Amino acid sequence: MEQAQKKKGLAYKWKALITVAIGTYMSTLDASIVNISFPRLTNVFHTDPSVVLWVSVAYLLVSVSLVFIFGRIGDHFGRKKIYTAGFGLFTVGLILCTFSGSIVQLILARVVQAVGAAMTVALGTAITTAVFPPQERGKSLGILGATVSAGLLSGPVIGGVLVQTLDWRAIFYVTIPVALVGMVMALVWLKEQKVTEGEFRFDWWGAASLSAGLACLLLFFNIGGKTGFEKPLVIAFGVAAIILVVGFVVTERKVSQPVLDLNLFRNRLFAAGNVSLVIMFVAMSANTFLMPFYLINGIGFPAGEAGAIYAAVSVAALATGPVSGWLSDKIGYRLLCTAGISLMCGGMFWLSRLGPAASVTDILPRLAMMGLGSGLFSSPNNSSIMGSVPKEKLSTGSAMIATVRQVGMSCGTAIAGALFDNRQTVHLARLTAADPGASNLNSLALIGGYQDTLLVAAIICVLAIFTSLARGGGRAQAGIAPPPSHK
Question: Distance (Å, rounded) from C-alpha 264 to C-alpha 484?
Answer without folding.
Answer: 6
